[in-house]
## 1
Amino acid sequence: MIDFENKNFFKLKQNADYADKVRELLIDGEDIIDAYKSMRDGVVFTTARIIAVNVQGMTGSKKDFTSLPYKNIVAYSVETSGTFDLDAELQVYFSALGMVKFEFTGSTEILEISRHIAKHTL
């Protein structure tokens, strides 16, 4: 599992191809909203959860998948990009896990992601 205490900040760039890494993990009726990649690791937002992918080893063939269901979110905060600050941010507070912060550079579906989180938490 990803150590979110030491790695609670992801700087992510939209990367639709990254969704292929988690496609086999999806359940019936679960769809991908968007996928993002940092250096090697990435995050995929689905209609039911956030899947964090931790790529391990020299070759990157070993991967750790952490499923973070929206139903375990107790609070969240969204900051959209602006004219001069082009980054968007999402802070998510999970019961028993704590806060996980995501920073997005460039294009992002932050408002659509927010709607799915709200749908499962309100």
## 2
Amino acid sequence: MQNAAHGHVLVVEDDPTVAEVVEQYLARAGYAVDRAEDGAEALAMAAARPPDLVVLDVMLPAVNGFDVCRTLRERGPVPVIMLTARGDEDDRILGLEVGADDYVTKPFSPRELVLRVEAVLRRGRAGDADDGGSRTGLSTAGLSIDPVARRAVKNGRELALTLREFDLLSFFLRHPGTAFGREELMREVWGWDFGDLSTVTVHVRRLRGKVEEDPARPRLIRTVWGVGYRFDPAED
């Protein structure tokens, strides 16, 4: 029985060599690991034993990684880190669009992947710490969040947010009226000192699609040209 002290990770990878290496590194880091070789098997395993996080290859037989990610997102908020064999920006953006929390481009360092897994899970488990340890929720402009339960509601309707979308919304609600650059958001919300800034752009677009009355004309999450974004609750 693998050590599950740090959580349960489902690795979805059809290359047995890559899958084995990833499993070994995650197991050494204290994770229980299940492996699936294709999308259909991954979805069945995730339904039978919900993982804490999924490491998901894009190029899978039968059901590709994007479709698997979409289905996982429909089922619940499990974090997903996607693996892509190409450095194609379109692949990375599509992965984020369908709900991935992070991505790693092949060839990759297994140690880096473990660090990404740890960072995503740590962020997900620190909802109350992100609010200074307070268990008090935030509410404004018809939006309310519970940082402990990690629930977000818009006008009485619960929002289906990914881990990163929730963190981003929580950050905006805690800092109304303040403009932030994408670099600042990546550092404060993602905890990264560097990375692809399109990650922030895509997540802002996805979040607008869930909280704005008209995402094409956002009134809550405003674009500040030459700077980044600002949350304006009074504009709702």
